[in-house]
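Protein of interest.
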Amino acid sequence: MRSFFSVIADLVINRPKNILQIFVVLILASLFGMTMISMVTGNDTYLDPASARGIQINHYTDTFQQNTLVLLVECNNPKSPEVLAYLDSIREPIENLQHVSSMTSVADVMKDANGGTLPTSAGEVIAATDKISPSVLKRYVPSNLLTMSMIVLNPGLSMEKKESVMANIISFIDSTTVPPGVSVKLTGEAAFSSEMGKEMGQSMSTLIIAALVLMVIVMGILFSYVSNRFLPVLMVVVGLLITFGIMGLAKIQVSMAVIAAFPVMIGLGIDYAIQFQARLEEEARISSLNDAIRTTITKTGPAVLFAMLATVMGFIAMFISPVPMIRSFGLVSIIGVISCYMTTLIGLPLVAILINYKSKPAGQSKQAEAVDAALSKIAVSISKKPVPVLLVVILVAFIGIQIDPQIPIDTNEKAFVPADMPAKLTLDKVSRTVGSTDPVPILVYGSNVLALDTVKWMKEFTERELETRNKLTNAVSIADYVVTYNDGKMPEIQSELDAAIERIPPGTRHQFINGNTEAVIQLYTVKLETEAKNNLKHLIYGDIAINPPPPGVQTSITGSFELFTSLIHDLIESKEAMTYLGFLLVALFLGMVYRNIHALTPIVPIIAIVGWNAVAMYVLGIDYNPMTACLGSMTIGIACQYTILVMERYIEEREKTPDVTEAIKNSVRKIGSAIMVSGFATFFGFSALILSNFPIISTFGLTTIIAVLFSLIGAIAVMPAVLSLLDQIIHKVEEVEEEVLHIHPHQK
């Protein structure tokens, strides 16, 4: 290990121009890679698309849902002849737009029920309404204040093409003459996902800039005792740039979780750079620049590497999560911290040579000396009374571990996005009027789902569900359209059913059947919380078991409804598993690297910090979500940074003095201010997440800065107590062994 860092030091000192050229090439390649970065939203961020559930849900959304836009028309009388005429007039032009398959509206069913012509009077509207299945009518006209038209796009469209289609539809609507008192808006899942992607891009830029600005402010105030105090910010920027390049070249897409990873890696990256520059400043005061660089690389390099790799262990634990966005967060964080570490290890000494770095004279920073003295005094006081301190620490942690399962888990995607996002505001308006905009889709599949007995079962099942489940507001299937296009009654023979299905417009038909092997039942609900949705899902499965479909036909609840209700179970199981695996990986790593009893000392404050996090979340009323579910394993990674650095310096000082209190005092005094500066820089870097207009990210930011604050407390207050108590235990064991050997000298 030392020889590796010696080689790095020799290369930086002897070949600075060659190293600089390599950096320039890396930066240029990264700039190219950045152009290949793309955004990802939707189900694939929550569920592995290659899993059985993922395949089924994506098949459903591709076939029945994702390519459907909703034209929301608000007015006082959505069934008036004027509104019907307007909807009929825009259908053909919209269907003629590129990538549009069909458009269906209440005008279509009204026209069919009125003998093929649009109703032109209130009386004709009433007469036509009586012939339409109530479920079908409610699907298009859910209230007396709005009507919804379905625009089906061609399958397999990229997000760019969907955005182009939406822009063309909006442009066309703007060019039409809308009846007085009528408002027309475009909404639906595709519109929601498109706008969410744009918001994510803006949020990412805002967060990165905010994090860097906060870093500069903190460095300017707290890191003034070194020369060129903003060098760490430069290192982080280059490390971040290389991370972007790797992501683009590796085709790693940006999701909400990945956006949150950037301030995290900025915070950790600034910590590495501060530790390196603090050591360089210290060494440059007592030796030549080349010697200072060599000492910094060979001494600080391994210590920070071990801390970085321990952090990576916490992120690796995220790979067992079934949620892709958590795995993406872990992967991007690992790439980011390694990039920032390598950039700092080589780049900071390189810049020091290029600018002929000169340290500030010793004793100029009263601020750093005061911080070091205060922290070392606190550490010494704690080390003299370790047992009471640790009892309080462990008690609070134990309480946190006990209440952690009581903290709710929120998996409502609509609650994760900006509250003022226009697409969300439109969906909220609809949900206030008609209930949930996320129906319960039941996929019906078999060799022939259009057999008469199966279609009759769909009609009977939906009617029974509406009668027995008060959370349901409507239920629609192909059976309702069969009744509508068969003069208001269910066919009695198969040929009559086939004829009715042929009369249903293709655009409508394709929303409910896929050939004759698949059909979908849409159950609409009042607005429900995730737990209530989960309960309803189990009730519906029970109803299907009591009233099953005909032989050879199977059913399955699918779509985003099934995804987000199952996500709670996935998060609960993986949350604890990630935390336990993180502890195990860190413990194994530290044991393998240090091979002594001190290797396990960082585990105590880390366990405490994880428990404290739960207490803080419970007190502040913060729920878990797909992002904060990885808080345990991420906290392990962050806390390792500071606790390992304290342990490293303690081991170094312990070799110089047999007095454990003196060793603790000296170790904290020498790195206390550097840890505080890096800790506060990390704290403010992470705090940029709170500025995000995505609630899921801002909540994650709040929990993260709490974890950073607890990590600092763990390093400065808990580690001295653990080290002191461990020394006392070792001392007692040695005394007992000496007594035993004295009584039984033959055992020697």
User: Anything to note?
Assistant: The chain has a mean pLDDT of 84. The longest helix spans residues 695-743. The beta strands are 68-74, 100-104, 146-153, 183-187, 440-446, 472-476, 513-514, 518-525, 553-557. The chain is about 65% helix and 5% strand.
